[in-house]
């Protein structure tokens, strides 16, 4: 299997001031991410997600273990050539406009002239900030800032994108835009490694997830397998009359070997309801 990311037995300790014992932030974590896969790392605050990502990017030095990106050791600077990164709290110059910001990062990545201008335009369109491209970031909303952050991470057409909390502080509308952008990256074969506290979104975009707790990987697998309830079968009926539901109940009871756990109207999610009642609402 061709791997975009290989993290093997990663260990990282910190020695916070005023604390005698070292703090074990990441404890023998291993993660493989295949080319083109969208992988989500989830876990409570302080469980080691950002530290794992930073070690993968060579931004923190591991105490043990290895991290590789497309087969290259993460501690080598050139391993980051094909990587875009959106940090948890990106800092941007507030006096620059959206397009100036992208131009700035594009130049840092060696883009110049017509190629840079074309890339800036393309990215502003991709993150739906064409109209706001000439406005200063100081006036951007949180969702717009995250989208410019995402555009910044894509500037040099990376093959791997690492997103630390891409939807932090963003409302459901902005989160949905970011989710769609991640799905778009997946469509284009770009590998995505993300961590987020928005579990419903992780469920929607990721092929595989890992759950990390107190620095340790406690569960990992394809999302469909992890979420399937082994001993249950779901049947969803449209327009079923109460009589039909009663018949189904009788049939199951007569059969004896199975139990009907629930029959009623399925629930939507609060996120879907929010979107339906706000942006998706059509004026009469
Ligand atoms: N530079 C540092 N110095 C000291 N301790 C640190 C440092 N960076 C992280 N830690 C500690 O390591 C642990 C893991 O932190 P990390 O930021 O990786 O967690 P996280 O899962 O990303 O959390 P969150 O969901 O809050 O972003 C925490 O206890 C944190 O306080």
Automatic annotation (TrEMBL):
The ABC transporter domain, residue ranges: 5-239
Pfam families (alphabetical): ABC_tran (PF00005)
SMART domains (alphabetical): AAA
GO MF annotation terms: ATP binding
Key words of the record: ATP-binding, Nucleotide-binding, Transport
InterPro entries per record: AAA+_ATPase, ABC_transporter-like_ATP-bd, ABC_transporter-like_CS, ABC_Transporter_VariousFunc, P-loop_NTPase
PANTHER family named among the record's database cross-references: ABC TRANSPORTER ATP-BINDING PROTEIN ALBC-RELATED (PTHR42939)
Name of the protein in its database record: ABC transporter ATP-binding protein
Provenance organism: Luteolibacter rhizosphaerae
